[in-house]
């Protein structure tokens, strides 16, 4: 299964938000969609799922146009931050209602998932009485319960407690193994780094960079605070590695893990002490 976006353009009145070159997403992969606040990540997800339809260009699932064939969205699950549930009804009502819209609702599976998410005991209470986290869990449950082949998550971890985030990350990796396609946005670098196979950086309406996080020889940005900045600088210069120096004896440079290991050994041999080491994927620089 593929999800293809072809020359998608969208504006909120005079505010042009998306103007994308063609891009294709494949099954069995997790894609991180990242960018600064307000660049259009949520808008992008809304265009993929017919929440916004007045765009030009096309969104296609296996070559079929989603705007013209909304039934294709039966294979798509989505979680958006501003998603509204029926607050004056119970969690169970919402689960059955949204499940029924799909036509392939498996209540047993949904209840098992509710148990894993630890909201099964609250399903008979009105959603209005739910905490923010419980509300988010119910939205997650609704997106996951239909066995969707394509899953879209806009900031899915916001509002969840740590154990649920850990559970959910493992669950997502399991879904990927099963061959689902997952698109996820998060402002938390670590979430993207631990989950995504590929990261697409959105800026000025376009995906300006794509990073393959599974590439074995990728380089990272290292920041090291050391007791001997001049000795470390000399080491880096000898190795032909460009670096910049910052206040408080921090040095920043971009190298692969293998080169870093070698550099670290050399530093130890020369009695250079590293007080603090920070390692970041390159996409992080683009969204600061
Ligand atoms: N309903 C709307 N009407 C008009 N403009 C909107 C609307 N929703 C979003 N926008 C604007 O569209 C742009 C993209 O917003 P969007 O919410 O898609 O960004 P985002 O990347 O998801 O942001 P964040 O990281 O803050 O969640 C912003 O300039 C925003 O102000």
From TrEMBL:
CDD domains given in the database record: ABC_DR_subfamily_A
Keywords carried by this UniProt record: ATP-binding, Nucleotide-binding, Transport
All residue ranges annotated as the ABC transporter domain in the record: 3-229
Gene3D superfamilies the UniProt entry points to: P-loop containing nucleotide triphosphate hydrolases (3.40.50.300)
InterPro entries recorded: AAA+_ATPase, ABC_transporter-like_ATP-bd, ABC_Transporter_VariousFunc, P-loop_NTPase
Record bears the keyword Transport: yes
Protein name per Swiss-Prot or TrEMBL: ABC transporter ATP-binding protein
């Amino acid at each position: 299964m593929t999800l293809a976006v072809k020359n998608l353009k969208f504006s909120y009145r005079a505010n042009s938000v998306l103007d994308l070159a063609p891009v294709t997403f494949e099954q069995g992969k997790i894609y991180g969609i990242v960018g600064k606040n307000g660049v259009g990540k949520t808008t992008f997800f809304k265009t993929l799922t017919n929440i916004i339809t007045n765009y030009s260009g096309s969104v296609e699932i296996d070559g079929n146009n989603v705007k013209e064939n909304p039934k294709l969205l039966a294979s798509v699950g989505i979680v958006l931050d501003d998603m509204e549930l029926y607050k004056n009804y119970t969690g169970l009502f919402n689960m059955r209602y949204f499940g029924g819209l799909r036509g392939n609702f498996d209540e047993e599976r949904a209840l098992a998932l509710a148990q894993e998410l630890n909201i099964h005991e609250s399903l008979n209470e009105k959603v209005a009485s739910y905490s923010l986290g419980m509300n988010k869990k119910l939205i997650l449950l609704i997106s996951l319960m239909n066995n969707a082949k394509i899953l879209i998550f806009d900031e899915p971890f916001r509002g969840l407690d740590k154990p649920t985030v850990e559970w959910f990350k493992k669950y997502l990796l399991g879904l990927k193994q099963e061959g689902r396609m997952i698109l996820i946005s998060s402002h938390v670098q670590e979430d993207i780094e631990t989950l995504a196979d590929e990261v697409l950086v959105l800026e000025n309406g376009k995906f300006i960079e794509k990073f393959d996080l599974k590439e074995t020889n990728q380089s990272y940005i290292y920041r090291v605070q050391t007791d001997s900045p001049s000795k470390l600088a000399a080491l880096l210069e000898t190795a032909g590695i460009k670096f910049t120096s910052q206040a408080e004896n921090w040095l920043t440079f971009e190298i692969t893990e293998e080169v870093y290991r070698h550099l670290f050994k050399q530093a130890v041999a020369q009695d250079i002490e590293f007080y603090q080491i920070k390692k970041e994927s390159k996409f992080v620089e683009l969204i600061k």
